[in-house]
Write a structure and sequence with these properties.
heterodimer; A: about 220 residues; alpha/beta; BirA Bifunctional Protein, domain 2; 5 helices; about 30% helix; globular; disordered N terminus; B: about 475 residues; OB fold (Dihydrolipoamide Acetyltransferase, E2P); Dihydrolipoamide Transferase; Chloramphenicol Acetyltransferase; 3 domains; four-stranded antiparallel β-sheet; 18 strands; about 25% strand
Chain lengths: ~220, ~475
């Protein structure tokens, strides 16, 4: 028996702090390029300034702050083309946008969600945390606290965009401005809070790359842009 | 030219249904093969669905917001002769099938599929100019939620033309409704109709009136209510439009259809168990499942097996309806309306519950579009919520049967074990009554159907 290791190249772009609008524009462009085969599978790793985003399944009542209060706290608001309800992004949260071509062997929306979850569970494991899933609630949880949110889009030709948001050292008080993903009964958490120490973003980024490589059978060549 | 069917695609092994969130194309639009024609959403994923062939969108069957099972036809595309002909084995057979559906002249149901599509057309200009893959930017620009876009579509309003007062200039539901009001009062807005695309009229033969869906013969058409004297202290007010329509329909139904009623007692223990088990999951999917939804689900399946109950009589013909379109009677403060859930037999219980709740809510807020109260093939009415034990409802013409739901309560019931021991125990039970048109449906038909509904309810599947 022989196991063929069909690794695909993965380009990782570490973008630092990027506005949500710029993130959307960049993704739109990269999706086009990926579809045309001009770039390899690409993973964007970044952080957003404070922003509340509404997915296509969003209920506006899940935004709990008034526009005035939002302005005061410097939180933007966006409607996006990803699936899911309401979420918050901000500094200290690792945002990952995989721009992957799921063809030919990964053309399954649920499988893709489960794979992203699996990769994030792998990231948490590197920090000694036991992440898990909750049935019917996409995301990655430690106990009753949600550490990572997932909301994705698959464009024509099975090209992915949007992705995950993993709380590393996020100021969790900002989640008080929304009902995250429309789920009222559960809390949010972060890696730093779970471990009781501050974890650096770079450590988590590295772990995320390793974990995505493992789950998606890819091999990263770094790119800083 | 060949007409090909575009089914809801299978987007994953465990994905049984999809919700159409946005149509990127409208009727009459040209599409290239693999060009996105619509977007669907499932939990946490939005996905673009590419066209299976090049051609022109001929008909849109599933409208935005509707959830349908994988494989359900969502639209039809007319392809040019020869263009990728080999790829579409379905093409040839589908054209004659469509032609056969025509002869039913009275059928509200035959109009139904095209009506929602036409109703949707006015919403399209917002996306038409950006037709391609510009959806993200487009959504940001029009700044509205799917719900708002849906309401806009119902009222034929172009979201982009409405001043938004919501967060970051988003167009809210109230903005749309205010816009609609303003248009009503602005005389200049009247010639709106001619401004519409000339392609549209072919799709929609002059919007049928609510009461006009059924071609009443001359004999049946006149309903005169006898004059009655009022006393000096009585309050007299003119009949509302809705009351007039209800009065006419009820009198005509009694005149047209010899009604027979049967009733069965149903044990709800199993349903309670299934509900208890799935409650949390369902709540997480944002829906509270009630007895009405279980009953509707069971009825939709039983109707599929008993086509006689899902039919109409027309002069000398019996029309067996192709679709199971469930009417759900909704009591209003000053009347009654029966919105229709189309293709109810193709929905999961969650999908069905969402549709029922959606139309019922909009029935109460008077936001149903005309096509949403037409094309029903069977009606369910639930007076049980007011505490009635059993009711004998009047058929909603031109259907041939109606189900009445009685109140559900703990009752002493005799249960037996496998050794033949009997005991009286409290069980959750309620009556279901079936009113049916004895011209077509005989006692055996009605009772077998009702027995099947009872059986489905008492052995309700855990995953429905």
């Amino acid at each position: 028996m022989q196991t063929e290791t069909m690794t695909r190249p993965l380009e990782v772009r570490r973008l630092g702090l990027l506005s949500y609008a710029d993130g959307l524009a960049l993704q739109a462009e990269l999706v086009k390029q990926r579809r045309a085969g001009e770039i390899p599978d690409t993973l964007l790793l970044l952080q957003h300034p404070h922003v509340i985003t509404l997915g296509s399944g969003a209920h506006e009542e899940n935004v709990l702050v008034s526009p005035e209060e939002r302005a005061e706290r410097g939180i933007e608001l966006f409607e996006t083309g990803r699936g899911g309800d309401v979420t918050y992004h901000g500094p200290g949260q690792l945002v990952g946008y995989p721009i992957f071509d799921l063809k030919p062997d990964r053309c399954d929306l649920h499988r893709y969600l489960r794979d992203v979850e699996e990769a994030l569970i792998g990231v948490l494991a590197e920090f000694g945390l036991e992440g898990g899933r909750k049935e019917g609630l996409t995301g990655v949880w430690v106990g009753d606290r949600k550490l990572a949110a997932i909301g994705v889009r698959v464009s024509s030709g099975w090209i992915t965009s949007h992705g995950f948001a993993l709380n590393v050292s996020t100021d969790l008080s900002f989640f008080g401005t929304i009902v995250p993903c429309g789920i009222r009964d559960h809390g949010v958490g972060s890696i730093s809070e779970e471990l009781g120490r501050r974890v650096e973003m770079e450590e988590v980024e590295a772990a995320a790359v390793r974990s995505m490589e493992a789950i998606f059978g890819m091999q990263a060549g770094a790119h800083t842009g | 030219m060949a007409r090909i069917e575009v089914p809801m695609p299978q987007m994953g092994e465990s994905i049984a249904e999809g919700t159409v969130s946005v149509w990127r194309k409208k009727i009459g639009d040209r599409v290239e093969r693999d060009e996105p024609i619509m977007e669907i959403s499932t939990d946490k994923v939005d996905a673009e669905i590419p066209s299976p062939a090049a051609g022109v969108i001929a008909e849109i069957v599933v409208t935005e917001g509707q959830t349908v099972e994988v494989g359900t036809i969502v639209c039809y595309i007319e392809t040019e002769a020869g263009a990728g002909a080999g790829a579409q084995p379905a093409a040839a057979p589908s054209a004659p099938a469509a032609a056969q559906a025509e002869p039913a002249p009275s059928a509200g149901a035959t109009q139904a599929p095209s009506a929602p599509a036409a109703a949707q057309a006015p919403s399209q200009p917002a996306s038409a100019n950006g037709a391609g893959p510009a959806s993200l930017e487009e959504r940001l620009r029009t700044r509205s939620t799917p719900l708002v876009r849906k309401i806009a579509a119902e009222h034929g309003v172009d979201v982009a033309a409405v001043q938004g007062t919501g967060r970051s200039g988003r167009v809210t539901k109230d903005d749309i409704l205010r816009h609609v009001e303003e248009q009503k009062h602005a005389p200049a807005a009247r010639p709106a109709a001619p401004a519409q695309k000339p392609a549209a009229p072919a799709q929609r033969p002059a919007a049928p009136e609510y009461e006009g869906g059924f071609p009443w013969g001359e004999f049946y058409t006149s309903v005169e209510h006898p004059a009655v004297a009022a006393g000096p202290n009585d309050r007299v007010e003119p009949m509302s439009r809705m009351t007039q329509i209800i009065a006419q329909n009820m009198v005509l139904s009694r005149r047209v259809s010899p009604h027979v009623h049967s009733y069965f007692e149903v044990d709800y223990t199993r349903i309670d168990r299934v509900r208890g088990k799935n409650k949390r999951t369902w709540e997480e999917q944002g829906v509270k499942i009630t007895y009405t939804h279980f009953i509707a689900w069971a009825v939709a399946r039983a109707l599929r097996e008993h086509p006689k109950l899902n039919a109409s009589l027309s002069a000398t013909e019996v029309i067996y309806r192709a679709e199971v379109n469930l009417g759900i009677a909704v009591a209003l403060d000053n009347g009654l309306i029966v919105p229709v859930v189309k293709n109810a037999d193709e929905l999961s219980i969650v999908g069905l519950a969402k549709r029922v709740n959606d139309v019922a809510t909009r029935a109460r807020s008077k936001k149903l579009s005309p096509d949403e109260i037409q094309g029903g093939t069977f009606t369910i009415t639930n007076p049980g919520i007011f505490g009635t034990t059993i009711g004998f409802p009047i058929i909603n013409q031109p259907q041939v049967a109606i189900l009445g739901v009685g109140g559900v309560e703990m009752r002493p019931a005799v249960v037996s074990d496998e050794y033949g021991n009997h005991a009286i125990v409290p069980r959750k039970r309620g009556y279901l009554s079936l009113g049916y048109d004895h011209r077509l449906v005989n006692g055996a038909d009605g009772d077998q159907f009702l027995a099947r509904v009872k059986q489905i309810m008492e052995t309700f599947p855990e995953q429905a």
